[in-house]
Structures are given as structure tokens and as C-alpha cells.
Amino acid sequence: MKRWTLLVLPIVILAAPALSASGQSQDIAVVESFIAKQARQENGEEYPEARKLITGDLNHDGVPDLAVLYTIEGQNGTNDHVQYLAAFLRTKSKLLAATHTVVGGKMNRDVELESIKNNVILCNTLSYRATDPASTPSKKGTARFVLIKRKLKEL
Predict the structure, then answer these.
(1) Which among 21, 63, 147, 152 has the fewest CB atoms less than 10 Å away?
(2) Does residue 126 contact residue 110 with C-beta atoms inside 8 Å?
(3) Taking the model in full, what pTM does it have?
(4) What are phi and psi of 56, to 5 degrees?
């Protein structure tokens, strides 16, 4: 039995990253499909360099889910951009889109995704003061979001 374990264990250890990478690429495909569909609906396009993903439990089931901050810009040929936060839930090792909501954008606020702690999505924000130029919000703040009945609610 020990010999069998000694022979199989290195193979399992070497194969684990490949299995994990396969799951990650499936997750990315789900996220990209969701965002692409929304961008088409808005007649805009995603700014992919601004996308940020973090994992953590969002629905109190002990399984790591995914929160994604992304930006869609150029809606209908404008110079606008909107930041969205989306929640993706993992069920039976499959990732499914649960919901999304507007969290920031041009002349609103800039949002940075930080972490998920105790089922709460934590973000840092920069909001506009009355004296700020249109391109530079300066008022630092935070935002917290929870998933309640498949909707993201800001606390």
C-alpha cells in the first residue's frame, strides 16, 4: 500500500495545477460570456484591463464564489463608461451568473474591488467633490455589498 501511495502521490500533485487551471479557464469563459452579452445589449464594449475578479463565499454555503468588477464603455458611441459588480455563484463545481449592479462610472464614482470577508464584498471608492474636475474624483471612501436573494445590495 505504501509503495502504491508513493507512486501515485507525485502524479496527483503534478496533475492538480492542471485540473485547477482547467476550472479557472471554465470560470473565465462564463464571466467573459456574461460580460460580452451585456456589452452587446448596451451597444458598448468592455474595457478588459479594468476587470478584477476575487473569490470568496457570497451566499453562506462555504463554497468560494466569484465577484467581478468590470467596466463597459462607449455605449452608443458616447464617451461614457459604467462600472458594474457581478456575483457568480458556484453550484456543483459549476459557476453561474447570479446578478449584477451598477456601482460606479463617469461622473459617479470610481470603484476598486478589494476583498470578500464574511460574505461581504469590500470596495474602495473615489467620489466627486463639487470642486473636482470631470476626470478626477478625489473623495476617498468605501462601499460594501452583500448578496441577498440573488441581488447585490449596497450596505
Answers:
(1) 21
(2) yes
(3) 0.82
(4) 170, 165
